[in-house]
Please model this.
Amino acid sequence: MKTITLHNKTFEVSISENEISDIINSMANQINNLSTEKPLFIAVLNGSFLFAADIMRKITIPDCEISFIKLASYSGTESTGEVNKLIGINEDIKGRNVIVLEDIIDTGITLEKIIDLLQKEDVNSIKTATLLFKPDAYKKNIDIDFIGKSIPNDFVVGYGLDYDEIGRNLPHIYKLKK
Ligand code: IMP
Ligand code: MG
Model:
């Protein structure tokens, strides 16, 4: 089994490039079959950049659009603690049918924050598509509409996912070798 080293940790291939491609084709088919009216795909950076690029090429809904966001968390100056803000939404998304594109959903904390913030923008509907899902780590009740693959609670890297910012360029998804 081919292994790689990132920051002195060893990783082995977990989901090959070919398998990723099959997963994405199947997710795209499911989304296409919904025929959502004028969907606005919103990809969550940085991790979902490759997933978003690959799935969009398989989306055949003619009037679809795509935009990119980042979740910025910072400590407020008051005693309110952590404040979250979506950065990157420049257009008015009120009334839109949003499909969130995520690389991985782990505890679901990030997804919950994103959905809260999108709801404040008065969108019409929100669906979520994630390439990877860790059911054993998930702590929220939000339904995830499209799951590429459910994986065990292992740390994974590659295909957009990073280990301390490196490894995003790898074409396969690797897991930490035990
Ligand atoms: P959550 O808020 O716990 O669901 O985690 C979401 C974010 O944590 C993802 O968007 C990733 O950036 C990161 N993350 C969670 N699990 C992994 C992993 O196995 N590898 C790399 N990043 C991960
Ligand atoms: Mg992410």
Observations:
- The mean pLDDT is 92.
- Helices lie at 17-34, 49-56, 109-119.
- The longest strand covers residues 65-75.
- The radius of gyration is 17 Å.
